[in-house]
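Thread: "does anyone have the structure for this chain?"

Original post by V.I.:
We have the sequence but no experimental structure in hand. Need at least a predicted one for the grant figures.
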Amino acid sequence: MAEPLKNMFNQAYLDDLGAAIQLHYPPFDTRAFLARVIDDQWEGRALKERMRHIPTVLHGFLPQDYRTALDILRRAAPTLSQYGFENMVFPDFVGLYGLDDWEASVPALEQFTQLISAEYAVRPFILKDQERMMAQILRWADHRSHQVRRLASEGCRPRLPWGMALPALQANPSPILPILEQLKLDPSESVRRSVANNLNDITKDDPDAVVSLLQRWQTHDTEEMRWIIDRALRTLVKKGNPEALELLGYPASPEVEVRNLAVGPETIPMGGEVAFSFEIESRGQTPQNLMIDYVVHLVRASGQLTPKVFKLTRRTLAPGETVRITKKHSFRPVTTRKYYPGEHAIEVQVNGVSSGRKRFVVM
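Reply from O.Q.:
Generated one for you, tokens below.
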């Protein structure tokens, strides 16, 4: 079994963190700091709780003047470059204690994000003064460092996983779009991935804005741009959004027949798997691009059914061509999804259009 991610914040890292700080601030009491961090609640703290606990404790062992404390951390941070996610402690300190000193905090975030992303720490600044911070983020989009350019996109994602919500940008994502325009042809793959993920976030609130933007971007006919468009539209494609499908070259009304959908066994135990198969015949007069998915209608705790789309395959079928698809779906428990007993169903989805449904029972 893999070790829990929260164990990245362990005594080895804390020892090195304390030593790095003491090197630049000799009064730092490393032993007392470690005792305060690894307290009687430490083992029960989850990943994000540990990440927040460390800079909170650290604040009590550094000079109370924010700029003096920040200067110590900025000098200590480069000596911990062998660590990764653990160094979230540094930008998190800025997000917690630097909101009233932008002149010191913004350069610190710019430095720290080149060690470990400051995508979470920048969000309190957006909430405090969106206009001012988004102007800064737009300047970061032209930075020489690809880590800073990635922060420009990742930090303002409206629905960043684990990040605090940005309701104003969810309601009106237009301030984000100039930043993504600046970054759409970035030479860094990590920046382009962030651009695509940001656009996918925006589709959940303003799908028309994203489709319109990507229709313009499509004139940049490169492999990189095709990848961005495909990834940015993934949520809309799962929902069967016709404009998104057309943009990717999949007709919103495919001329196909789905037949012989079979699901078995009819009853499976919790933790088991169900198998299904079906055929698709092209009825069009020209080749058709097909995005073939399947929908599992899952029983929730309330007893209601909720559809969940799963990817299957993409095919181009010639006129009259038939393809047979087989697949198994597991009901083993996973961390991101909980299964409940009851009557479920499987449905085929071709270019967002559902065809056929077969029921089965999970005991």
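V.I.: this helps a lot. The two ends are 27 Å apart (CA to CA).
O.Q.: and The mean pLDDT is 95.
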